[in-house]
Design a protein that fits this description.
327 residues; alpha/beta; Rossmann fold; 2 domains; seven-stranded parallel beta sheet; 9 helices; 40% helix; globular
């Protein structure tokens, strides 16, 4: 179902859009026809632009200045490129281009589970999957169905994949999750009783851990759950143990046009990396994201017997741009 939605929207934009523009041109003249074509081709980028401009006036995460205009414009353009690639090729037409990599023998210490976000599918990770295979790291990438159902409904498919990867390597896997996928990972871990032996670490890319104002515009079940004051999010956080944040690495940026205010992407006690001039989807394609995942694959397991004191997130930043770090 998820792939059908993406194929329909892609066809509408690239086939029906130009046909409709040709009809408008034939009926009303060349200029209206070209204007209609420009709307179909440039529409997504123009629709996103106001949300990037608005970020100049939203408070950033603690310790970071407001994003400068140059960063916002760079993030907007990078996001246009990423959205065009993901929503017009990777997800509608190449969702299953790269199958899960589950070799009979592996020297990798553990596998990786890739979890996409809202209104996406496993094709989001097409830039990651061949690289992981070349690096000899087992992986699975799930498509969460139903696309617009409850986040809790995704726990069974995540659990099955986690079990398969654990059985393959003998070690609990690393979860890499984009956006809503980080909440899916938290909901899955709650469903298994927050058992420490089931999880290694979780790397989230632009996840609205404490909700996002943008979700107020959504009417689907999972969009309502991602609102900043949603009962679902409040209950999820209330039922989680104090040690939860120690299992997380949170990558985020204050040019993220989807998760804002940007500090909502942070969890207390998590290791946090700030990436400047990057939009929401672009976080998936950043070299720092892949490099962090590889480093976590080889990181020592977290001692489940140690109960860390809840604290503010430990923020790492690009030293050339932002030098202030939260301890």
């Amino acid at each position: 179902m998820n792939g059908h939605i993406h194929r329909f929207t892609s066809l509408f934009r690239w086939v029906f859009g130009p046909l409709l523009s040709a009809w408008v041109g034939g009926r009303y003249g060349l200029v209206p026809g070209l204007a209609a074509l420009a709307v179909f081709l440039a529409g997504p980028g123009l629709v996103m632009l106001p949300s990037f401009l608005a970020l100049r006036f939203f408070p950033p995460a603690p310790g970071l200045p407001a994003a400068p205009w140059s960063d916002l414009m760079a993030a907007w353009w990078r996001e246009v490129v990423a959205v065009t690639r993901v929503f017009n090729w990777d997800q509608p037409w190449a969702e299953n281009r790269f199958p899960d990599f589950l070799p009979e023998r592996t020297h990798a210490p553990r596998g990786i589970l890739l979890v996409h976000g809202y209104s996406c599918n496993r094709g989001l990770w097409n830039a990651w999957m061949p690289r992981l295979q070349r690096d000899g790291i087992p992986y699975m990438a799930v498509t969460q169905e139903p696309a617009f159902g409850s986040i809790d409904a995704y726990a069974p498919c995540i659990d099955e994949a986690m079990r398969r990867l654990h059985a393959l390597t003998g070690s609990p896997p690393l979860i890499v999750a984009h956006s809503m996928g980080g909440l899916s990972a938290r909901a899955w871990w709650r469903s298994v009783g927050h058992a420490p032996e089931r999880i290694h670490r979780i790397l989230t890319l632009g996840t609205p851990h404490r909700g996002t104002l943008l979700a107020r515009l959504g009417s689907t079940v999972n969009a309502r759950q991602m609102r900043d004051d949603s009962p679902w999010l409040l209950q999820l956080a209330d039922e989680e143990p104090d040690v939860l944040g120690g299992h997380f690495d949170c990558l985020y940026g204050h040019c993220d046009q989807v998760v804002f205010p940007s500090e909502t992407a942070l969890l207390p006690g998590a290791r946090v990396l700030h990436l400047p001039a990057r939009g929401h989807l672009q976080l998936v394609f950043e070299p720092q994201a892949y490099d962090r995942a590889i480093s976590l694959i080889h990181a020592a397991p977290i001692d489940a017997g140690v109960k860390p004191r809840p604290s503010a997130p430990r923020v790492e930043s690009d030293p050339a741009r932002y030098s202030q770090t939260t301890p």
